[in-house]
# Entry
Amino acid sequence: MIKKAILPVAGLGTRFLPASKSIPKEMVTVVDRPAIEYVVREAVAAGIEQIILVTHSSKASIENYFDRNFELETTLEQKQKLDLLKEITEILPTHVSVVSVRQPQPLGLGHAVLCAKSVVGNDAFAVLLPDVLVKDDVAQNDLARMIQRFEQSKAAQIMVEAVPDHLVDQYGIVDVAAAPAEGESTVMQGIVEKPAVGTAPSNLSVVGRYVLPAEIMTLLENTPKGAGNEIQLTDAIAMLQQNSVVEAYRMQGQTFDCGSKLGYLKAVLHYGVDHPKLGEDFKALIQELKIES
Ligand code: G1P
# Structure
């Protein structure tokens, strides 16, 4: 069973400046909670029990958020603010733990994943890139489907979605004989990081959710620097695919790239209107704006 998930959070978030100058971009609030909580919830909903943060010295507030805060809890208890107390103590279910390792140098996503090698050991694991929020409105989320598929087939799973052809140079792109239906996986024939427009093998982009066998760590140790002069996870997956079956899983849900300002605003709108307490009032606020096209 896949119980461990790596969340690389060491990046400095230059796309989200100035906010990310002194707040980790993962802690920027989407409606009433930091973006990273949505990603952790997605992992927990898929059965993950250990969250492995690959982090940086400037990002202690992420670790603090998932820790208990004795002082705050005592104050809320004394003031009988029990609803709030419940909210802050139930951020993580009790069976879920968070550990962190440091990425000492910004050498790329592949290097960040490799930093968690000793924590994952011989276990297969998931990777979730927290810039991207995945909104699934179904009981079994996309990550859970990928894990189920991995457990049946033992093939690594790479979550993909279609993007417009002119945007392929911003993503990892997979090569498949035919695009799978949403919610299904198909054997991948290749994967390339940020191909130039016009050279991509398809328009199916890597979303930032992966289920990988432990052997990817050995491959990462031998992965030379690639696109952007960084050690790319995509390149290690391409090596894995030379000797093992790797599958592209086509997602059903919706993605929001919270690493970009417009993607973030879109996420606030969508999660805002669906919020159980604020949703109706938020919709009324949007109506009040009387936006004309
Ligand atoms: C990373 C991956 C890329 C993937 C993307 C998804 O790139 O390297 O393959 O498509 O995340 O967001 P980054 O956005 O960190 O440059």
